[in-house]
Design goal:
336 residues; alpha/beta; Peroxisomal Thiolase, Chain A, domain 1; five-stranded mixed sheet; four-stranded mixed sheet; 11 helices; 3-oxoacyl-[acyl-carrier-protein] synthase activity; acyltransferase
Length: 336
């Protein structure tokens, strides 16, 4: 028995903004502060982002993707044994957003939330695979609904506050879903490898502090705050040889993959990370310039791009690489 990922779907929110429009909004919303012209594009390589409407919730984005996934497989929500909402965003603290998604879909199955910043969807797949391998479930629907636009700081006090707020300006709202299910060895989407690690001593380098016990009601803590230089050093501290050893233990090497999906925050660092891991840069799927950082919906969005552009032949291995605040790193390899 094996486990596969099937029916991956992803979509960005309906309202597109150019990065110039983002800078203009900051200028209009701030009292006296003007961001340097073109700075966001130069720093990140992002040209366009996507924001959902004011009435849209994270659960709506997740449910829309779930409907697409189920329809593509000829299934109904009644065929799902477990629904996992795996996202950095959430509708509210209680109840779990997975309940809201299930209600939108008309589902009656068990549900749970999984949260680990931009690796949430990848960890959701990890949890689903483990539960299926245990024999507890046959089909698990893993969904995400990301709405980072709600945590972008538009009214900026000064240059220092702008710098720590930059990540919020290049993130997009998006939804994604996939079905993880029991299958036979050799089937398309079969999970061939999984590996996860964390360097949690770096948890403070990027935060959205509001809503927990530390800052339950402080409105000013409801915005992204990140030290970009420290974040890069944190990811540089990860021993990429661990990834190579984990792949080798499953009979794989980076040279085997015909396409690689990597979570993307800034194009300059994507180049650095690809070089560190020894990836052929032309095999790394790019979504950041036209879609921004879609948080945990990034990897399914790239999966969909591999599918639409026919970047992988049936049976060939494809690698998914998750990079997340905290910090966390994870890899899953699948048979295309």
């Amino acid at each position: 028995m094996s486990v596969r990922i099937a029916g991956v779907s992803a979509h960005v929110a309906e309202n597109a903004l150019t990065i110039d429009e983002v800078e203009a909004r900051i200028s209009q919303s701030s009292d006296g502060f003007l961001p340097p012209s073109g700075v966001l594009g130069r720093l990140t390589g992002v040209r366009r982002i996507h924001h959902a409407g004011t009435e849209t919730q994270a659960s709506d984005l997740a449910a829309a993707a779930a409907r697409t996934t189920l329809a593509s497989l000829g299934l109904d929500v009644a065929d799902v044994d477990l629904l996992v909402f795996a996202s950095a965003s959430q509708d509210m603290v209680e109840p779990a957003t997975s309940h809201i998604v299930a209600d939108l879909l008309g589902g009656r199955c068990p549900v749970m939330d999984v949260k680990n910043a931009c690796n949430s969807w990848l960890n959701g797949v990890q949890v689903a695979e483990a539960l299926i391998a245990m024999g507890q479930y046959h089909r698990v629907l893993v969904v995400t609904g990301e709405m980072p636009s709600r945590a972008a700081r538009w009214s900026v006090r000064d240059a220092a506050q702008f710098v720590e707020s930059v990540p919020g300006y290049t993130m997009s709202d998006a939804g994604a879903a996939c079905l993880v299910e029991r299958t036979s060895p050799g089937d398309r989407g079969e999970i061939l490898h999984r590996w996860f690690t964390a360097e949690s001593r770096h948890w403070s380098v990027g935060q959205l502090p509001a809503g927990g016990t530390r800052h339950p009601r402080d409105v000013d803590k409801g915005y992204f705050v990140m030290d970009g230089a420290r974040l890069r050093r944190a990811f540089d501290s990860v021993d990429v040889e661990e990834i190579h050893r984990a792949l080798k233990s499953d009979g794989l090497g980076v040279e085997d993959f015909v396409a690689v999906a990597v979570h993307q925050v800034a194009m300059p660092y994507l180049d650095v990370f690809a070089a560190r891991l020894g990836l052929r840069r032309d095999l790394v799927v790019e979504t950041l310039p036209e879609h921004g950082n879609c948080a945990s919906a990034t990897l399914p969005l790239q999966w969909q791009q591999v599918e639409r552009l026919h970047l992988a032949e049936p049976g060939s291995p494809v690698l998914l690489v998750g990079l997340a605040g905290g910090i966390s790193v994870g890899t899953i390899a699948v048979r295309w």
